[in-house]
Amino acid sequence: MRKLLFIFCFLSVHLSFMAQTFNEWCDPTVNSVNRKPMTTNFFAYETVEKALAGGKEKSSNYMSINGNWKFNWVKEVAMRPTDFYRLDFNDKGWDNMPVPGLWELYGYGDPLYSNYGYAWKRNFKNNPPHVPTENNHVGSYRRTIIIPSAWQGKQVTVHFGSVTSNIYLWVNGKYVGYSEDSKLEAEFDVTPFLKTGENLIAFQTFRWCDGTYFEDQDFWRLSGVGRDCYLYARDKQTQLVDIRVTPDLVNAYRDGVLDLDLAVKGNANVELQLLDNQGKEIKRVSQKINGSKKITMEVAEPNLWSAESPYLYTLLATLKKDEKIVEAIPVKVGFRKIELKDSQVWVNGQPVLFKGVNRHELDPDGGYVVSKERMLQDVQLMKQNNINAVRTCHYPNDNYWYELCDQYGLYVVAEANVESHGMGYGSGSLAKNPLYKHTHLERNQRNVQRNYNHPSIIFWSLGNESGDGENFVACYQWIKSEDKSRAVQYEQAETRAHTDVFCPMYYNHQSCEKYLKSEATTDQLPLIQCEYAHAMGNSCGGFKEYWDMVRKYPKYQGGFIWDFADQSLRGVNAAGNTIYKYGGDYNPYDASDKNFCNNGLVSPDRIPNPHFDEVKYFYQNIWTKPANLDKGEVWVFNENFFSDLANCRLEWVLLEEGIPAQSGTVEQLAVAAQDSSLLVLPYDLSIMSQDKELMLNLYFKQKNNQQLIPVGHVVAKSQWMVHKPTKEKEQFGNRHTSNQLIIQPTIDTDNSSRLRVRGDGFAIDFSKRNGYLCKYDVGGTSMLKDDGLLTPNFWRASTDNDFGASLHQKYNVWQNPQMDLKSLDSQMVNGL
User: Fold this and answer.
1) Is pLDDT at 335 greater than 80 in this prediction?
2) How far apart are CA 53 and CA 463, in angstroms?
3) Among 457, 488, 649, 700, which is least packed by CB within 10 angstroms?
């Protein structure tokens, strides 16, 4: 197979001169051809008014190429068409495929889920950079578009938001370029290839390429186009090539500074306006720029950005030439400062807690194609359940996701598209292979270059589960030289010099406490678990114990639950009912990891799973403690770091034996951030029964709509026992109470096979052969089915996490243990 692959790549090179096929897909030294350099994410509008209104879809500089494309699918690389991009090619027999859209969800190949290990693991031995040609499906696309006459003379760029696993591009029969990295956009300057009127765009993508070795994430393995695709036009001579915004806080976090790095093509007057969230101008700077320029804006006492109060300004960059506006570019800006000190990550001078989740970019219907509405729903669920942080596991997300995190307030771990889990962590790890240093670096560089301006991003993550080595050291060093304003983390680095955070996976309670108590110099990084509290099944056990430690040890600042949503895809069963499908439901032969895709706090349709309520409780930001409950005195602690409780009200209910007896509301909660206040609740215990159980329920509710949290939503709750009955309840068989119910049965020991116990209204028999209870009648009714045996059962059905920990094997002896009767006498029975 290896020899055949070498031959195939060799032939590709030579055939390229005639049939325009290439070998980039199996060349580890080439990740792109003619792809535009990555810049920060922005859009250039034709007017200031359109720039401030937002929505690039309404700009005359924008043209969507989403929709149906002519599509051809083949099972093997060698079967792919090599002349399909020609203008005279006949595609009338081809199918239609939506863009964005994933082939497997439309019947071309099978969706495959794998936790780790490449999709080819059952029929091909890893041998990077080579990937199999067998079952390496190839999709070819064609579409004719109309270029408006107004774009004549402009530079036109084509944007492919996400294509798995690679893309070869042709325009009007001419080869344009190539790109790998399926989770970041591929952009090409297609100006030389276009003409006014009809134009043919054609591209081809492989199921697997050499870049697939870096995309072994725990998710569904799908192929095709996952995000929006479009063209956009700009002035050829004058444009803002890039803009980076680095915020800082000075003078004890009171005043703000924006360091701006601009790159301008052509000689232009650049006007920079800083606008508040009402559109009022705060600051204005004008410069004539041709090339690179650094500009600093100082702002006295700005509103600060945090997950609690995500205040955003708009930086409007307007380029003018001969007093005429060439383009206007809006950039959302948040004033905030990130620091690493005292073994903690500080935001705006506070050692915040990260109450996080991991979130895959997946929809039950669209797969990788996730709508804006679904993304907003995810943010809303997080905000309503006290989640304040998200890790983009394990790749860059759609640009809109970061915009939502900026707008509504989520701390983000922005992870690069690097996971070579299937190669292991030993000598075969790509992290140790010099041949792949460039790819490690490039994927991290593009992640930083594209997402730099988002204030929500607190951490850069170098990747996931890829072993460790010099390639990650190089990535860390590059990012720290490029961006000194953020923390950088990598789980496999542990506490070595190329991570700013100790971010282990599934560190147990004992290991956490050992690290937190350690005074060793190697154990002084902040502890923030990148994955913990595995949420598979009705799980998240031990969650309280983690957060008891977080709230006890300053060095422990939280973690990210695995994971947010069950990853199942929607399907239909034989009866026509809607079901959720998981790995193996599509194809019993591929190497699929069954239902391990379902680890979420919510279902694929975002319906909360039972354990989400526990997470919401331990992530809440308001806590109470009894002071003197007989007098209605309760301490309220505000765990927020920046926000008081002015937007919350307290509703209390006093329960008598579970039934509401008294209730009330406290409208004003004057509790500052990180402070406590004593509240006196005006209930009256003198009118309550003294021999009944009294329980106080406290509900903190939202007063005004804010950050997707509606009025009346319960943001925190607690419950306290106010009064227990003075008289102990009678307890059957409790010999230690004064109210013991004494049974004086008759015991028949003379029966040869059974020891019989008879009392008022009941009859019990024990087998003398095995000691089991074999008869139990009450009032003449048998409590045992078919006079069976009441046998001990030491086994229960294994849960998903039991299987993950191999407990079904470790404790298998208890499934059918051998039990022998040693003795049975009337004294033992009477003792019951």
Assistant:
1) yes
2) 36
3) 649
Catalytic residue among 327, 465, 545, 657: 465
pLDDT(120) > 80: yes
Largest CA distance in the chain: 116
Cis, bond preceding 165 (omega within 30 deg of 0):
yes
Q: Flag the least confident range among 233-242, 349-358, 399-408, 584-593.
A: 584-593
Told to judge if 465 belongs to the known catalytic residues of this protein, a careful annotator would answer: yes
Using DSSP bridges, classify how beta strands 313-321 and 324-333 pair: parallel, antiparallel or unpaired: antiparallel
pLDDT digits (tens, 9 = 90+) for 132-177: 999 999 999 999 999 999 999 999 999 999 999 999 999 999 999 9
799 pLDDT tier (thresholds 50, 70, 90): confident
CA atoms of 564 and 314, how far apart (whole Å): 31
Tokens of 312: 């955003």
Nearest Cα to Cα of residue 580 among 113, 42, 58, 63: 113
- Catalytic hit among 491, 531, 545, 693: 531
* Rounded Cα distance, 817 and 285, in Å: 80
For 15, phi and psi rounded to 5 degrees? Answer: -75, -20
pLDDT in tens, 670-691: 899 999 999 999 999 989 887 8
Structure token pair of residue 2: 């290896």
Tell me how far apart the alpha carbons of residues 90 and 84 are, in angstroms, rounded to a whole number.
8
Q: What's the rounded Cα separation, in Å, for the pair 601 and 615?
A: 9
Q: List phi, psi (to 5°) of 547.
A: -80, -20
Q: Which residues face 356 on adjacent strands?
A: 389, 560
Tokens 């019947």 map to which residue? 107
Tell me the average pLDDT across 66-91: 96
Residue 372 CA to residue 735 CA, distance in Å, equals 64
Give Cα separations from 126 to 122, 423, 430 (angstroms). 10, 7, 12
Bridge-based pairing of strands 67-74 and 239-250 is: unpaired
Q: What is the mean pLDDT of residues 609-628?
A: 96
* CB burial of residue 82 (10 Å; 0-12, 13-18, 19+): middle
